[in-house]
Specification:
The complex is a heterodimer of chains A (about 160) and B (about 425). Chain A has about 160 residues and is α/β, with parallel strands linked by helices. Chain A is about 40% helix and about 20% strand. Chain A has two domains: about 30 residues; about 120 residues, 3-Layer(aba) Sandwich (D-Maltodextrin-Binding Protein, domain 2). Chain A is globular, with a radius of gyration of 21 Å. Chain B is of the alpha+beta class. Chain B has a domain of about 260 residues: Porin, CATH 2.40.160. The longest helix of chain B is centred in the N-terminal third of the chain and has 32 residues. The chains are: A alpha/beta (about 160), B alpha+beta (about 425). Chains A and B meet through helix 2, helix 4 and helix 5 of A and helix 2, helix 3, helix 4, strand 1 and strand 3 of B.
């Protein structure tokens, strides 16, 4: 019984010591910016629900209209935008994401996976140049030449913005 | 009993070995991050250099060069930065590289190697090759694409090559796409979700109702198929409607070289992927055909309903098929039913590579059934799938099936249990 009390006391002391350390480390981590959804300026869309964004990125919606196909752009692994997309939109791990697109092509639902983009600059060039292109970018660096899309009526920085 | 244990040990050893080979170096992510940061830095420097170049050209004045470009028009920035390739705008080389060129051919393959040992009298344990499956996808233009699936199948004497799917599709928009060729019949879920890629499915084998070479559900249709989404908001409705040559003289095959009768088979499927329940799909389908056998002709009416949740943690698949056969000459009716329910759960440990699963199958056939070979059964499967890498998996499975007791002149069949191992991959 005495031993049990001793161990419980030690555990509680450790927890109490850890709380301020945790709080301190949280306070030191800068809040990461939101991820914005951007489309080519000529794309006829200004607001999408999160479910619609998911539908577009899952390849279930492939056309903005009969003449304008959706062109999916996604950052290469390790980029923060990709992590957010996989976590919030796809809700998949990196391996599951790859498997999803292999299966999607095999089911003849699409002919190609999203185009992989290796840098922010290239991503902006592609979104600007390709009609129907859609991508995720760091909201702090949104540049002219692309159109930012509201998600569930919200823009990056709004309190309940879902892509962060 | 010792032999299966030996194979389990070999399986575990091989799995561990391959996993070790596949494990990335611990600092690989950091290196990639550093490289990406370097790429971005270099891009910034290039942009600065370009800006300097433009500034120096501008300061030289318009008279310095006869070939100087005219000043850009005062359009909004969005328009300036969006050169439209079809309008002859300047396309950056990076964009040109990522453009889709037609035809854009993609080839992918699936294969599997298996081991099985059962206590069924007259069978032997051993290894066997699964289907070697090649899949071709090629966009011929922005709206026209071609798909094909070819399998090579091992038999006791030789190999056979089978054209599983070959069709061309025209996409008008999301609501209407039409294809012509040979398809997997859109009856139910499994037949059009996993096709012949064993790696895609959680289990070693397909359920009885859609077994390769089986007769319960017509796996293929040769003809035309329309498909698309139905405007329905968050309900996420979709449809497939097809018409074509139904079952041939061998009812496991469609009429590839022509229908066996003047009656076309048709199929209709309605499904929903609700936006608010990501991963859930439910659907219902009907299939209608006329079967011509040497002895008599039958009207076939298949009804199917399914519910799936494909998130992996958990994964749930359930499907029910009713096949109604009516003898045209005698009006005798037989109803056969098949169903399965499969439950899997991707465990949160070991990078979510382990997925234990269980499937229950039930097949009912009345003694009055004249089209199918009489084979009612109940089957249970318990297994474990281990994803050795993103594109390869090991599966181990225990299967127990109990067949029908002696009745109506059919001999009794004993219960069979067995172990099955498979390594399935895509390349």
């Amino acid at each position: 019984m005495t031993n049990m009390l001793k161990y419980t006391g030690t555990l509680l002391t450790a927890l109490v010591l850890l709380i301020p350390i945790h709080n301190f480390s949280s306070a030191q981590t800068p809040r990461e910016s939101d991820v914005a959804v951007v489309v080519n300026a000529d794309t006829p869309v200004t607001n999408l629900s999160l479910a619609e964004v998911r539908k577009v990125f899952l390849g279930e919606r492939q056309y903005w209209n009969a003449k304008l196909p959706v062109v999916l752009l996604i950052r290469a692994p390790v980029a923060r935008e990709r992590d957010v997309v996989l976590r919030v939109i796809y809700q998949m791990t990196e391996a599951q994401f790859k498997q999803y697109w292999v299966a999607k092509i095999f089911r003849a639902e699409v002919t190609a996976p999203p185009k992989i983009v290796y840098s922010n600059d290239l991503q902006y060039e592609l979104v600007s140049a390709i009609p129907g292109a859609i991508a995720f970018v760091d909201s702090r660096n949104v540049r002219p030449g692309v159109k930012m899309v509201r998600v569930d009526g919200m823009l990056p920085g709004d309190k309940s913005y879902p892509l962060r | 009993m010792r032999r299966p244990l030996f194979f389990i040990a070999v399986f575990c050893f091989a799995a561990g070995f391959v996993r070790a080979q596949d494990a990335p170096a611990p600092d690989e992510k950091e290196q990639i991050k550093a490289l990406l940061a370097r790429v971005e830095l270099l891009e910034k420097q290039v942009a600065e250099l370009k800006a300097t170049q433009v500034a120096s050209a501008a300061s030289a004045g318009p008279s310095s060069s006869a070939t100087a470009k005219p000043a850009p028009s005062p359009e909004p920035p969005a328009r300036q930065a969006a050169p439209m390739p079809e309008h002859g705008g300047q396309i950056p080389p990076e964009v040109r590289q990522l453009e889709t060129h037609y035809p854009s051919l993609q080839i992918r393959g699936f294969a599997d190697a298996d081991f099985s040992a059962t206590d069924q009298p007259g069978t032997t344990s051993g290894f066997n090759l699964g289907q070697f499956d090649l899949h071709i996808a090629s966009a011929l233009s922005q709206k026209i694409s071609y798909f094909a699936e070819i399998t090579v199948n091992a038999h006791p004497q030789d190999y056979t090559i089978e054209m599983e799917r070959t069709f061309i599709r025209y996409d008008y928009n999301d609501f209407f796409k039409i294809s012509f060729g040979r398809f997997h019949t859109p009856v139910g879920y499994w037949n059009t979700a996993f096709h012949h890629g064993a790696w895609l499915q959680t289990t070693v084998d397909r359920p009885f109702m859609v077994k390769v070479g089986g007769t319960f559900t017509p796996l293929h249709l040769v003809g035309a198929l329309a498909e698309g989404n139905i405007p329905s908001g968050s309900l996420g409705l979709g449809y497939n409607v097809g018409i074509g040559n139904g079952r041939g003289a061998n009812i496991a095959r469609p009429g590839d070289a022509g229908d066996i009768n003047n009656n076309r088979a048709w199929v209709a499927k309605l499904f929903a992927r609700p936006g608010k329940s990501y991963g859930v799909e439910l659907g219902a389908s009907v299939y209608r055909d006329k079967i011509t056998l040497p002895t008599s002709e039958f009207r076939e009416w298949i009804s199917n309903a399914y519910l799936v949740w494909t998130k992996g943690a958990p994964e749930f698949l359930a499907e029910f098929d009713n096949v109604n056969h009516r003898n045209i000459a005698t009006n005798a009716v037989a109803n056969s039913d098949a169903m399965y329910a499969q439950f899997g759960y991707r465990l949160p440990w070991f990078e979510r590579t382990l997925k234990p699963y269980y499937r229950f199958e039930y097949t009912h056939m009345p003694l009055s059934e004249q089209v199918f070979t009489y084979q009612p059964q109940v089957e249970s499967i318990a297994g474990l799938r281990y994803d050795i890498s993103s594109f390869a998996a090991f599966k181990s499975e225990y299967r127990y099936s109990a067949s029908h007791p002696a009745q109506g002149g059919h001999p009794a069949m004993p219960a069979v249990s067995g172990v099955f191992f498979q390594t399935a991959f895509t390349f």
